[in-house]
Amino acid sequence: MEPVKIGLLGLGTVGGGSVTVLTRNADEIARRAGRAIQITHAAARQYDPERIEGLEQIGRISDDAFAVVDDLAVEIVIELIGGYSPARELVLKAIENGKHVVTANKALIAMHGNEIFAAAQAKGVMVGFEAAVAGGIPIIKAVREGLAANRIEWIAGIINGTGNFILTEMRDKGRDFADVLAEAQRLGYAEADPTFDVEGIDAAHKLTILASLAFGIPLQFDKTFTEGISKIEPQDVAFAAELGYRIKHLGITRRTAAGIEMRVHPTLIPHRRLIANVDGVMNAVLVKGDAVGPTLYYGAGAGALPTASAVVADVVDLVRALTTDPTNRVPHLAFQPGELADTPVLPIDAVETAYYLRITALDRPGVMASIAGILSEEGISIEAIKQKEPAEGETTVPLILLTHRIEEAAMNRAIARIEAFDGVSGKVVRIRMEGLEG
Amino acid sequence: MEPVKIGLLGLGTVGGGSVTVLTRNADEIARRAGRAIQITHAAARQYDPERIEGLEQIGRISDDAFAVVDDLAVEIVIELIGGYSPARELVLKAIENGKHVVTANKALIAMHGNEIFAAAQAKGVMVGFEAAVAGGIPIIKAVREGLAANRIEWIAGIINGTGNFILTEMRDKGRDFADVLAEAQRLGYAEADPTFDVEGIDAAHKLTILASLAFGIPLQFDKTFTEGISKIEPQDVAFAAELGYRIKHLGITRRTAAGIEMRVHPTLIPHRRLIANVDGVMNAVLVKGDAVGPTLYYGAGAGALPTASAVVADVVDLVRALTTDPTNRVPHLAFQPGELADTPVLPIDAVETAYYLRITALDRPGVMASIAGILSEEGISIEAIKQKEPAEGETTVPLILLTHRIEEAAMNRAIARIEAFDGVSGKVVRIRMEGLEG
């Protein structure tokens, strides 16, 4: 049988990695897929031919991406350019031309996925995006197919390797954020502009996708709450550890009676949870289904070859889809297109979590009682208190509180009152806390 | 559209769980699958109608399993009877009748899978067996589809929850094997006859399946080496911990230049590995692919609802397969049926691992030197030595050695010589050791 003809957009890290994987493992992939897979046409603005193993297998390389999506011979287009534009236009054009698409572009799917999937559905083609979430971990397939029998209750994931590397180093070595970030940049784990990673935007893109797959709702990136890790201080990492917790930058989506939570923020989690021990640049996603209970998926969330692993797995899936009935396939967002729900996404004010609070209290009698009184009046129960001795010559003392679950709006009111109280100095540090229990 | 009609064989733990999941999550499953799924015909020798939520949805229940597989209206048969016979005959008959099959029967697939898949292939039907390995963890889908781009290097899994519960209790509480086994039996985690679980036969069934999926070889249960955990002593658990290791009962399959290893045995692994922290009845499978690196999959490996989660996910997959091109599907063993390889399976003598050795040495000068000499002569390098002080009045002392990797045949020769040496008392305790490094 003829090889399946692939058009490739982008020859950067993941593009180059995909060429390498398709070349290096060509025999084994063909033994699995039932057909050889060949990149016949690629486009890239710039690339380094010396650095890409297998580049010589590509039939034709130019800088004209639209020529690839218009190439009549191409059956599957792999989009690895990244960003919103022209990725969106290229993907829509490929679909219009009746081609299947594979993309690793989380920003594109989170922002324009609804439009892209509708176009693909109308045209009877498929869009694979396994590589868009957690790199090489086949988490989209797990949630969409592997857990299809479950009513999913929640998902919590370490889905940004840069952030996890920084938090791991802060914990292991007691270093501060800026110092570790600079090292991550030197090592190539963080971009020159680290905003997307450390402020949680990249994780929010991925979480948006996971929430839609889990709960059958349209993609709603604009409703995902995002808080970064740039304000985490070494002392909070250390206090959390003393209390038996680790701070991880989690993407969390949960179904409640009132609606769906979608949020990315630093989170204290018990150190005995398996996901609390996922360190360095690794990713992991914990999924709670009503039948299966908790399941966890762990692996490399980025990098040339791990991401290419997911890209090429999607290609193998699509090779099989070439002859399937277009009306009976795995739906893009796990639920049939006509079956998406309009369940509301909850604003962060309506989210209920437990909290870690660090309060700089004046070292005088009655302060703790006043703070406890404010919390009590707002309906907040205290689970644990840790009061440090004041340092020599200091008039303030850090007071650490862990609370039970409470709606964020109530916590905001309590924090405003505590900050206004004259027994307290400066701002209250608040980090959300989750038990992640089965 | 008409509901898909299911025939169900067996209403025990997993059968009852599958009825419950299909009933409880009927709406959500139909929104995913695109069609409602209905059990129209079930057979069971005996069952407890009070204990099965959703039993009333089943059209007809009798004790005649062959009537179910011969029922013209049934499109998919779920086999949850277990054992070899009549499960084999029922599955083959269902296939002959043109029905798709889902089974959780690891023994059946490991022993008769080659025959069953060939029959299914010839008939153009599919056999789903996700539930046969690691219960609710979608590990078969991950290896077969999610990692399809990779040349898989090795897999190591905790794939028997009973054994993992026992080893976890032995470590946490310092208890001995027989004591914990009795408790596991009381808790319902272990069968009255625990042989299948504690001697590694159940794990070997599952490992046989994973090896075929990973390396594209026919199922060869008879070539899987199996060693149980019944001889593990609390002192070895404790010595391992002092050296920074945990003992887990692992199924390991690895591709080497000489062939494929398939082995189930107690294994020392570094305590910092994520899989070393998988405790209690939970399962986890670590897969090393050449592109993706290490990935890990964790969840409940048994139980009514977790196993039903995998069974019903297979049903949802098959609902989509009802209209697919039979010549272009995901192959049962990940590789196309004509593309399985005859790579040899290595005998345990040819397997290379590191070792933990516990030697009961006489407390006199020169014994250590003699043992080190024997090891050296057999080409075995020592990585670490731990010598305990002799207890008051004792004339022997436990000597713990960790070795570098060496072929098992050489280790067998060395152990025979050490046991024959008059500076040593009794048998040498030998536990294999793996780094499970990325």
TrEMBL record, chains A, B:
InterPro entries: ACT-like_dom_sf (IPR045865), ACT_dom (IPR002912), Asp/hSer_DH_NAD-bd (IPR005106), HDH (IPR016204), HDH_cat (IPR001342), HDH_CS (IPR019811), NAD(P)-bd_dom_sf (IPR036291)
Protein name: Homoserine dehydrogenase
Keywords: Amino-acid biosynthesis, Methionine biosynthesis, NADP, Oxidoreductase, Threonine biosynthesis
Family: Belongs to the homoserine dehydrogenase family.
Keyword Amino-acid biosynthesis: yes
Superkingdom of the source species: Bacteria
Binding site for L-homoserine: 191
Keyword Nucleus: no
GO terms, biological process: methionine biosynthetic process; threonine biosynthetic process
PROSITE patterns linked: ACT, HOMOSER_DHGENASE
Cross-referenced Pfam families: ACT, Homoserine_dh, NAD_binding_3
Catalytic activity as recorded in UniProt: L-homoserine + NAD(+) = L-aspartate 4-semialdehyde + NADH + H(+)
GO molecular function: homoserine dehydrogenase activity; NADP binding
